Amino acid sequence: MAKEEVERFLIAGGENYDFRLKYDTLEPKTAFVAEANKEGYDFTEAEFDAVLKESGDDFASYGNPRKRGIWWF
Question: In degrees to the nearest 10, what's the CA dihedral of 34, 35, 41, 44?
Fold first, then answer.
């Protein structure tokens, strides 16, 4: 179930620019996951990391304005 929640979260970010914008600047990862949980997504930092690792994505942000390459389009 948690894997599906992370995937739902990553897809939501891929579909919504404002959603991505909010999360692209959140640091550290604990705050990022905590905010996602406040918005109704149910996963832990370890579960989030597992899905990123499986998909080959990296949590690091880059550019100006800050962006993350984790979102699923």
Answer: -20
